Protein 1
Amino acid sequence: MTLRTRIREAGFTLVELMISLALGLLIVLALVTMLINVNRGNNELGFSQRMIENGRFAMQLLETDIQHTGYWAGFVPNYDELTYVGAPALASAAGGQVPTALPNPCLAYSVANWNSEYKANLIGIAAQGGNVTAASTPPYCSGVLTSPKASNDVLVVRHAEPCVAGSGTAECANTLGSANPDVYFQTTQCSTDTTGYVMSTATADFTLHKRNCTALAEIRRVASTLYYVKDVNGTPTLMRSQLAASGAAPTHLAAQPLVEYVEGFRVEFGIDAKSDTNEDVVPTAAVNWSNAAVKTSPRNRGDGIPEGNFLRCTQVTPCTAAQMMNAVAVKVYVLVRAESTSPGYTDVKTYKMGSADTNCTSAANADASAACAPLLGPFNDGYRRHLFTQTFRLVNVAGRRETP
């Protein structure tokens, strides 16, 4: 009995032990493989979520700024004011308001530089853009647009801040009278004021009134924001430069990183060049009504609706002042990539970053692929990408052109 018990209690044989170890190793290997796959899947999901979040955040920031483009606290240039009697004059003439040229967005403030013509151009052309053909050739603002990423665009938008200076937020701080003032804007509501608006850094210049012609009108800071893409330590990043106090002369400050992993940024403009009767917009002529008694259809003014293809401004074929003063919509394309490569993945896709570039002809371009072609890619690397696109209506420009 004792011998049998000892035999029954004997351990595994060598073969049994090896089989057990092999089965255990297979189970451990399966668990490790599952853990690696789950971890990889979580990483991929995290990369995708952050990529989508970056794109949405970039579009949200752009939307917030673009929606205010062309807001000048109730001031309407006389070529868009349908009650204006007479023929509006060019900005180069005394009191003229029709833009004559695309303004230099980064011109430092001074009374001489920011003369009446330049201010009228700023107000009349509230949005403008251009493309980057190489890191050393930005369309303008070379001192601010440092090392921009080629084959991308630059967008500048301008407006008066919706809030009143001194209301407490950083955007609406009141620096008038300080050693480092911002540029501010004031428009009149009083019929006896001799000028329609003031744009200045000097407190003494803001003398316009509210409707009662007694109380002074609100003063608002002038906002000018420039967007472009730059590689920051190897990471493509959407950058932003803003007009702000800089010593005694407000200017566009050095650009700051806004959203990481934005690899592509292109902009197109919807141009309102025709009236609702399909006639050309002529801003320097008096309003020509289809029916002078009813006054619901101006034949030589825009109707707030863009015609034809959206327009991309390039260095080869730059947009004109006549086109940009009629911009009533902005279409933005933002291409965002993941922060890390995905094992086993190769991005062989092409991304359409624009509509047909009718303003760019192959005969006119030596750098058509960078300046005018609406496609980016294929990148043939391991980064996943997502393209975001949205059209924003410039409500402050388009809205004032609408008639019943």
Protein 2
Amino acid sequence: MVQSTDSLPARVAESTPKSRRKAPAGSSASKTGTRPFARFEWMIAGRYLRARRREAFISVIAGFSFIGIMLGVATLIIVMAVMNGFRAQLIDKILGLNGHLIVQPIDAPLSDYAGLADRIGAVDGVVSVVPLVEGQALASGSATSSGVIARGVRDQDLPKIRGVANNIKLGTLDNFAEAGGVAIGTRLAASLGLSVGDSLTLVSPRGNVTPLGVTPRIKGYPVVAIFEIGMSEYDSSFVFMPFVEAQAYFNLDDEASAIEIYLQHPDAVDSLRPAIEQAADRQILLTDWQQRNSTFFSALQVERNVMFVILSLIILIAALNIISGLTMLVKEKGHAIAILRTMGATRGSIMRIFFIIGSSIGTIGTLAGFILGVLISLNIETIRSWIASLTATDVFSPELYFLSQLPADMNPAETIAVIVMALILSFLATIYPAWRAARLDPVEALRYE
């Protein structure tokens, strides 16, 4: 990390102002010294940063410090971007299929669902209201069977569920009620071996009551549409069917199981709750999307915070390497520091020289890490696909991570916080070695020279 300083005194003398070199020992110029971060301080710091063969070990430590800071900053940016993207995509998929607020009955069934939906839909801030019939059933196809959630939706309400209406891969939702068929997810269709036009058999334990007991209800429906939301759990477990057909299948006489409310701003659930309860004009249980998924999103937030703390240790370790590298450099350059002091360099100048050296490593490493992190974050899905094809493995399994693609969403505030943290740690790491260099006694350093 250093070069010979044999010609350094002459270089310093040349770069030192003449007024300072000619000033008497007791003059004000000798007391004030040069201005902070003067040209000769940058020159000496630059020479010390260029390694010579016999100081190669110090240069290796500096190199590890640079790589550590670069990788720490890049890793933090990438991980935070992926976790932000993961959370944003999950919220988008969840809210694309489920309402922001769910209305469920308390004292009586929702036989007045039509009027209730109209009253709630008139509330300012409510975009759409969807009554639905929901129940569990066993879906059977040509290949196997699987448990599903069957939802009955009115024909005019189905386009309001953008997660389904905007992601139809096969078939169509036109005249959905008249067709009397069902819409299923791509993963459910693949697992059951079904395509558009095939028959899906639903088996419900809540069937007809006979003298011999309750018999399961079994009925086949043609598949009229196949959708792909992009969230494996939804694509493999939801079946949409006409509202009236679902009422008949689940033995609900002109009733709805629940009413889903879609808001203009999903985060405004608390502010709109009183107005919606007042518009309902009956006893209801109102649950928002945050309550229904609180455990899941809380776990994501805890994981995100823990990952930030753990990955920050990489930057801290790199900063500690800066301390060790500068400390060894101070010992190596004790003779040169003593010469600079006898030539008139102040303790502040010596401290600033070594501060420049350490902070340069931290600043350049942080900048390189920022560039690397941004490049990887912007191309994370391409990199994932390349690694998956290279290793012939599924790097981001949808069955484990819910999503079919690896998302990344860089938050400018978080990225700036990572950069500032890395710079602060790098600057703090230079203070002690620079202070030790400034405290070096020239007499002791040159005693045996």
